[in-house]
Design brief:
Shape: globular
Largest sheet: 4 strands, antiparallel
Oligomer: single chain
Number of domains: 1
Number of helices: 0
Length: 59
């Protein structure tokens, strides 16, 4: 995969959506956490709630 086809850092995805890019994702808000999530997987909830995840690092 080339960098031209990657989603930019800062891309957001909500719980339940398919992950658009493999990498390290951070919960947008407080409390926050990071998690490695692979492209195509469903974005998980955090602390039992639906959240918005932000791509912070490529895999």
């Amino acid at each position: 995969m080339t960098t031209a086809t990657r989603h930019p850092l800062g891309t957001k995805a909500r719980t339940g959506e398919k992950c658009p890019e493999s990498g390290v994702w951070r919960v947008d808000g407080k409390p926050s956490t990071t998690a490695p999530i692979s492209e195509g997987n469903r974005m998980p909830p955090y602390d039992g709630k639906a959240v918005t995840w932000v791509l912070v690092q490529y895999a």
